[in-house]
Amino acid sequence: TGATATRIGAFEAAAGGTVFLDEIGELALELQPKLLRVLERREIQRVGGVTRIPVDVRIVAATNRDLKAEVNARRFRTDLYFRLAVLVITLPPLRERTGDIPALVEAILDGLGDRTSPMARALAGGELLPELLRHAWPGNVRELRNYVEACVVRQERAAAALVPASEPTIDITQPLRAVRDRWVRHVERRYLEALLRAHGNNVSAAARAAGLDRVHLHRLLKASGLR
């Protein structure tokens, strides 16, 4: 492994506390039995070690996948699913809880250390807040955070996130193929932008949702100037 010194892993470091496993649905099938053993036995073995170390941690896992469907498709282990799904909490999309947006915006601004600039005031309760409340936010809190950060960094309204991009013009002096190609590129870019927002810029999840190979999606993103 190249390890030359003792390193404390996440489970051992979190003893007596909580381990948060984000995007648990992305965990590779061959790694799932290892996680299951830790959860079942409540002990870990360091890389290169020979002794088992007991750990007492609380596990919180999150995913945007339907894990039951993943189990049925044999992409997620049944035993690991039931070991994790002791208490299931479903978080509604942001569009169904727009009342949370003002508090979320304030928390994001606090994290950025900006509550006094004109743009921060516009976002926190000024002229931009009604637009934030109207937007559907397909990318949920990640999209909101990206938008707020873009506004604060530029100190101007990041209109592209809330206002559709302008459409190509129909120029009948141009050959049909050239006009059609411009429209195809425009629609493709709009689709890819919305796809990435909806999946929090997770390319693997976006590729599955679009029915595309991950490498192919990377090529499309690069061709569209999104990577």
Word description of this protein:
It is globular, with a radius of gyration of 23 Å. Helices cover 48% and strands 5% of the residues. It is mainly alpha-helical and 227 residues long. A hairpin with an 8-residue loop joins strand 2 (43-44) and strand 3 (53-54). It contains eleven helices and four strands; from the N terminus they run H-E-H-E-E-E-H-H-H-H-H-H-H-H-H.
Write the layout of secondary structure elements.
Blueprint lengths: L9 H4 L4 E4 L10 H10 L1 E2 L8 E2 L3 E4 L5 H6 L5 H7 L16 H12 L5 H7 L4 H6 L5 H15 L21 H23 L4 H8 L3 H10 L4
Parallel strand pairs: 1-4
Antiparallel strand pairs: 2-3
Distance between the termini: 32 Å
Alpha-beta content class:
mainly alpha
How much strand? Answer: 5-15%
H/E topology pattern = HEHEEEHHHHHHHHH
**Share of helical residues:** 40-55%
Q: How are the strands of the biggest sheet laid out side by side?
A: 1-4
- Rounded to the nearest angstrom, the radius of gyration is 23 Å
Number of helices: 11
| Sheet of most strands | 2 strands, parallel
- Give the low-confidence spans: none
Tell how many strands the DSSP assignment holds. Answer: 4
**Shape annotation:** globular
Mean pLDDT: 84
